[in-house]
Design goal:
7 strands, seven-stranded mixed sheet, alpha/beta, about 20% strand, about 170 residues, single chain
């Protein structure tokens, strides 16, 4: 899987309340959540983000609560992947469960700037900054997790397995 997109930067310890503020948790509609994604970190972000964009952040991205609303809001906004130095473990798992690819790379997290264009080879764990020519290594996504992403998340993967359709 090859991903390419424009980068939006965020810092360390971006918690689930910054990703999708608690005041919007009265809905589970992905499109409604997308209208408020990251607005407490950047008020204009929901209006600026475009389909295919990529978020790059620091350490402990997605910390806080265990709500699935956070990765759902990110994915529904059109963001196709998140790169960070590290992720909160529950956010990590929730992301794969809903089919959002995430990549851990300390070097990429430090060096990629907002507005850069990056290309991610998810199979090999290689992140290329097309704006600077630099290349970084991320932890590759394990094959099973790649299956979850390709299927659109755990529920869709399970439906395909039950129906006998290969993922």
């Amino acid at each position: 899987m090859l991903l390419r997109g424009k980068v939006w930067r965020f810092g360390d310890d971006i918690d689930t309340d910054a990703i999708i503020p608690a005041r919007y948790l009265n809905t589970s509609d992905p499109n409604e959540l997308a209208m408020h994604v990251m607005e407490d970190a950047d008020k204009e972000f929901p209006n600026k983000v475009k389909a295919g964009d990529i978020v790059v952040a620091g350490k402990n991205f997605g910390c806080g609560s265990s709500r699935e609303h956070a990765p759902i809001a990110i994915k529904a906004s059109g963001i196709q992947a998140v790169i960070a130095k590290s992720f909160a473990r529950i956010f990590y798992r929730n992301s794969f469960n809903i089919g959002l690819p995430i990549f851990e790379s300390d070097e990429a997290s430090k060096k990629i700037k907002e507005g850069d264009t990056v290309e991610i080879d998810a199979d090999k764990g290689i992140i290329k900054n097309l704006s600077t020519g630099e290349q970084y290594i991320a932890k590759p996504i394990p094959p099973f997790m790649q299956e979850l992403i390709a299927a659109g998340g755990l529920i869709e993967w399970t439906k395909k397995k039950i129906s006998g359709v290969a993922a």
